Amino acid sequence: MWNEKIPSSLCLTRTKEHLIINEADYIVFEPDDGACFSAVGRQSISCALPIDLFAPPGARIAVVKQTNNILTALTVGNDGALSVSWVVGTEEWNGPVPISPAGFAPSGAGIAMAKQTNDILTTLTVANNRALSVSWVVGIGNWNSPIQI
Questions:
Q1: What dihedral angle (degrees, nearest 10) is formed by the CA atoms of 32, 38, 42, 44?
Q2: How confident is the model over 31-68, as pLDDT tens digits?
Q3: Between the CA of residue 36 and those of 17, 57, 59, what are the distances in Å?
Q4: pLDDT for 30 beyond 90
Q5: Comparing C-alpha atoms, which of 49, 56, 63, 95 is closest to residue 77?
Q6: Where would I find the beta strands (DSSP E) of 10-149?
Q7: Could you give the angle at the alpha carbon of 83 between the alpha carbons of 78 and 89, nearest 5°?
Q8: Higher-confidence residue: 26 or 80?
Q9: What's the rounded Cα separation, in Å, for the pair 27 and 17?
Q10: Distances (CA, A) of 73 to 12, 65, 82, 84, 87
């Protein structure tokens, strides 16, 4: 069934986005005119989206299961802040929420993220000062702002 409410967080870049909901349903976002189209047994259904073009085209995104029920994504937005987005189960996505100051890293910078332990999720990014920086979260707590290592 078509749900006209599409979270703007699904459209993180200025590139054409495809969201596959299942084999019978997909959504295409066209950034040039800010419209989306769905195929759920009908063609060319469109709706206007309140889209905040948060990151540059081709921005790198790291995605890891934080817990059994939380999927976490990190990216560096247009403002150079490292930001986190997350989804619990099949609910709507949350964020992006900055976990670093603006200007921390180049917009769209590369990010590596992995489980350091069962309870610690760690990310590495090269900051604007060219230093390798680490940020982490323990359990479902707050992310620690990146520090140079």
A1: -10
A2: 454 444 444 433 344 444 444 578 888 889 999 999 99
A3: 9, 18, 21
A4: no
A5: 56
A6: 17-22, 25-30, 35-39, 45-48, 62-65, 70-76, 82-88, 94-98, 111-115, 120-126, 132-138, 147-148
A7: 130
A8: 80
A9: 8
A10: 11, 9, 11, 6, 9
